[in-house]
Amino acid sequence: MKILLWAEFQKLRRSNIILFTVFAIVFTAVFVFFAGTTTASPEQMTVSSVGWYMTMTQVWETVLVLPAVIALLGSYMICREEQDDTIKNLRLIPVNERKLTAAKMIILFLFSILAYVLLFLLTFSTEMVLHASELSIKMFFDFLKMYLLEGIGVFFAVSPIIALVPYLKKNYWLALAVAEIYSFAGLFMSMSNTLRTFYPITAIFGVSGYYETTAQEKLCSLLVLLLCGIVALIFLKKLNRRR
To answer: Which phi and psi angles does 50 have, rounded to 5°?
Structure first.
C-alpha cells in the first residue's frame, strides 16, 4: 500500500489539475475579497468586519469551486489507467486493483483536506492584514476546525460522483459538470431547514458548524455524508469486479 500511495502521489504531482485547483481557489478568494470591498448599504457586512472574509470565502468555495474540482480530480484518478490504456500493464505486474483504488481515494481524501488548509491559510493571512488586533486564538482554531471539517465533508459529498462516472464509462470531465450543478443546487436547498440538513452539500455546513443546528440535525447531516461514502464504496467495488 505504501508503494501505491507513493506512486499515486507522484502521478498527482505531475497533473495540471493541481495547478488548476490552486488557481481556482485563489481566483475565488480574490473575487470574494473585491466583492467585499464594495457595499450597497452601510449596514451590509464586508471585509471591514472581522471574520466576514473567512466566513464568506469558504461558503463560495464550497458552493461553486471545490466540490467540482475534487470530483474532477477523483474521477480522473480512477479513470486514468483505463482511459490511457495502461490498465493492461498493471495487470501484468500484477497490481491489486482494490488496493490501487483505495490508494487513489486516500490520496484524494488528503488532497481535499489540503485544499481547505490552503484556503484557510490564504483567508486567515488576509484577516491578519486587515484585523490583526481583533483576531484571537479561539477564532483561529474555530475557523481551522470549520475548514478542516468542510474538506472532509466535501470529499464524502462528491464521492458518489467520483465513483459513478468511471462505473458508467464516461469521460472524467463529466464529473466536473455534474458536481458543479450538484453543489450549486445547495444554494436553493439552503432555503429550507429540512432540505439543508439532508442535502449533502449543505449538510457539510451543518457538520462544520457554519449553520446553527441542533444536535439531532447535525447527526442527520453526518449520517447523510457517511451514506454518500457508502454509496461510492458500492460503485467502486462493482467497478473493480467488472474490470
So the answer is: -65, 130
**Closest to 73 (Cα-Cα) out of 134, 119, 17:** 17
Check residue 52 and give its pLDDT. 87
Question: For 35-44, b where at least 16 C-beta lie within 10 A, e where not — what string?
Answer: ebeeeeeeee
Q: Cα(8)–Cα(222) distance, rounded to whole angstroms? A: 29
CB 162 within 8 A of CB 74: yes
Question: Residues 219, 149: contact at Cβ < 8 Å?
Answer: no
- pTM for this model (two decimals): 0.86
Residue from 164, 173, 158, 8 nearest 83 by CA? 173
Q: The C-alpha cell of 242 is what?
A: 467488472
As to burial, measured by CB atoms within 10 angstroms (0-12 exposed, 13-18 middle, 19+ buried), residue 214 is: exposed
Residue that the C-alpha cell 469551486 belongs to: 65
Sites in the chain below the pLDDT cut of 50: 41, 92
pLDDT of residue 125: 93
Query: Which residue type is seen at 136?
Result: S
Which residue carries 454509496 as its cell? 231
Give dist(CA 115, CA 241) in Å, integer: 32
